[in-house]
């Protein structure tokens, strides 16, 4: 009796996820790269994905052939620019994750990537506007503070911008923050949630440690804030010229993609993730995009959460973040004009 009812509930769950999954083609642009490969691997394990479409200017068919042997239900296809590959990759996509572009080397800022990555993101946005304008777009390519405005402006030019469906991926900042705080406080990171707001580079990354419910000394606050703001540099230095965070980013990107899928096709309520989105919070100061926790719903961004109560220390951090963010956003907007 127990076995039968358990079997039934397993079957019911399967048929739900199968019907939801039929709608969920996920495209990864930059799929053969350091992030793209492990991200695609994690997405292949996701039962909410029906079709994984892998695009890169090189090597995507090889990555697709390899991942395609994994015995989960989704189909995998690989595409390069030949034979209308980008069109094939994007058509009918529900979620498009974009880690295309060059990574940092030691001594570089994310803004130093602008000259190369801005045009990559603009060109991918132009194709997305044409082939899958209604998809949800998750932008990983740096500098996120500028590539998100570039993507938005390009979509606007094509008349298809939907601010509810464009997300700068800042998940890695909260993943790191949780890990770093847990290390200092000797806790399990699963019990440590840290809200991080602002943008995704240096001083624009603002952790709200006062909202964790934990006590910090001034030294801990300074050290943790610095480590969260400059966590990316730790990896860039350790990789010593061979790239930046790829594996932790793949983990974070897969988490964000799954949250979008759960909220938009899985019907799950109360899904909250941080993301750099079109936001009114600092719009009066010329900052059109800002990362805070957002509530996801069937259409994408459903509600942008405010900053909540923040300390004087955090107000000071925000006052440094806002002008820098403004500069990054203006640079992106101007490039796209
Ligand atoms: P990588 O060089 O290993 O991979 C990038 C891939 O993009 C390559 O395979 C390349 O062929 C591909 N590519 C280049 N131009 C393309 C185009 N026009 N269309 C499709 N694919 C194209 O780099 P990576 O380590 O995977 O990093 C990728 C980007 O992600 C970098 O800009 C990096 O700074 C950024 N990043 C962001 C975060 C974040 O938190 N948002 C974290 C880590 C890295
Ligand atoms: C990160 O935060 O790890 C990424 O933005 C990559 C980088 O350049 O640091």
UniProtKB/TrEMBL annotation:
Residues 170-335 form the Lactate/malate dehydrogenase C-terminal domain. SUPFAM superfamilies: LDH C-terminal domain-like (SSF56327), NAD(P)-binding Rossmann-fold domains (SSF51735). It comes from the Eukaryota. Keywords: NAD, Oxidoreductase, Tricarboxylic acid cycle. It is an enzyme of class 1 (oxidoreductase). InterPro entries: L-lactate/malate_DH, Lactate/malate_DH_C, Lactate/malate_DH_N, Lactate_DH/Glyco_Ohase_4_C, Malate_DH_AS, Malate_DH_type1, NAD(P)-bd_dom_sf. Belongs to the LDH/MDH superfamily. MDH type 1 family. This is Malate dehydrogenase. The lineage of its organism: Eukaryota, Fungi, Fungi incertae sedis, Mucoromycota, Mucoromycotina.
């Amino acid at each position: 009796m127990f076995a039968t009812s358990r079997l039934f509930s397993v079957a019911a769950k399967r048929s739900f996820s199968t019907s939801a999954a039929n709608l969920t083609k996920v495209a990864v642009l930059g799929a053969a790269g350091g992030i793209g490969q492990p991200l695609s691997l994690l997405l292949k394990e996701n039962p909410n994905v029906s079709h994984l479409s892998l695009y890169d200017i090189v090597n995507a068919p090889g990555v697709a052939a390899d991942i395609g042997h994994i015995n989960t239900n989704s189909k995998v296809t690989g595409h390069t620019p030949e034979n209308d590959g980008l069109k094939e990759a994007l058509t009918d996509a529900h979620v498009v994750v974009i880690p295309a572009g060059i990574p940092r080397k030691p001594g570089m800022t994310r803004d130093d990537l602008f000259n190369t990555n801005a045009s990559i993101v603009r060109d991918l946005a132009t194709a997305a506007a044409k082939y899958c304008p209604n998809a949800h777009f998750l932008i990983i390519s740096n500098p996120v503070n500028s590539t998100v405005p570039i993507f938005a402006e390009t979509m606007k030019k094509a008349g298809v911008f939907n601010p509810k469906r464009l997300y700068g991926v800042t998940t890695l900042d909260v993943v790191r923050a949780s890990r770093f705080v847990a290390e200092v406080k000797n806790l399990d990171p699963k019990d440590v949630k840290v809200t991080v707001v602002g943008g995704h580079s240096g001083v624009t990354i603002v952790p709200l440690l006062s909202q964790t419910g934990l006590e910090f000394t001034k030294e801990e606050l300074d050290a943790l804030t610095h480590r969260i703001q400059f966590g990316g540099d730790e990896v860039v230095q350790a990789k010593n010229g061979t790239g930046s965070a790829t594996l932790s980013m793949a983990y974070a990107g897969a988490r964000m993609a799954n949250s979008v899928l759960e909220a938009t096709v899985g019907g799950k309520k109360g899904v909250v993730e941080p993301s750099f989105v079109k936001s009114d919070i600092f719009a009066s100061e010329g900052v059109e995009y800002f990362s805070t926790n957002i509530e996801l719903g069937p259409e994408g961004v459903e509600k942008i959460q405010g900053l909540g109560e923040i300390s004087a220390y955090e107000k000071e951090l925000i006052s440094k973040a806002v002008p820098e963010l403004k500069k990054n956003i203006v640079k992106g907007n101007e490039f796209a004009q």
